[in-house]
Amino acid sequence: MKIDRNSRGTLALVYALSIAAGAALFCFVHVPWIVWPLVALLLWFCAWQTAFFRVPERQYAGAPDSVTSVADGAVVILEKVFEDEFLKRDCIQLSVYMNFFDVHANFWPASGEVTYYHYYPGEHFLAFAPKASAENEHSCIGLRLAGGQEILFKQLAGVFARRIVCYAKDGLQVQGGAQCGIIKFGSRIDLFLPLDAKVKVKVGDSVRACETVLAEL
After folding, report:
1. Minimum mean pLDDT among 59-68, 99-108, 122-131: which range?
2. Do 46 and 83 lie in a common domain?
3. CA distance 39 to 89
């Protein structure tokens, strides 16, 4: 199993603290019906964190003119908006919300060149709140596809997300389906598409990074 390279230290700390807590339970609490359920809870927590930080191998379903999901989760926003940071025009905003149990590794939605990257510190409102897109801590990544189309996506922190990792930099050539970063704990991806994009999903749909085609350009 592959673990995100920026999360290995976090996972090692989780294991170490869980082992220490388990040892303390066996040493100082001599009531089996208390100790064993707590140890089981610690084991479950370690397993959950391992799954959370893993980078799954996925079969990329994209094509040169399609955009796949950046993350696992559910579509929570699908509407027309004016994107005023990079594209500076009316776009379709398609947002995917990740809960605590979704894989939080993020993947490039298409192949192309990174033409814009900026990180913003900010607030930590609930990730599914509309104002989170502008006010929460986030990273913005602009991508130009081989056909010349440009899209933008944002990695948004949520209430519990305290670290956004992004591997983007200006001029970087990227491959659709490769990992582009990770957001640690509940968070959201905002994707901004051209108005003439043919959207293939609707609000409420569950999507999977790399495997779900969100739109054709």
Report:
1. 122-131
2. no
3. 54
Same domain assignment for residues 71 and 38: no
Element (H, E) at 143: strand 138-145
Residues in Cβ contact with 36 at an 8 Å cutoff, skipping those fewer than 6 apart: none
Token duo for residue 200: 């293939």
Q: Is 187 a catalytic residue?
A: yes
Asked if residue 134 has pLDDT above 70, the reply is no
Structure tokens at 60: 């990329």
Report the distance separating Cα 18 and Cα 39, nearest Å: 9
Of 95, 139, 187, 206, the catalytic one is 187
Q: What pLDDT, on a 0 to 100 scale, did the predictor assign at position 51?
A: 83
Based on the structure, what is the number of domains in the chain?
Answer: 2
- Is the pLDDT confidence value at 183 over 80? yes
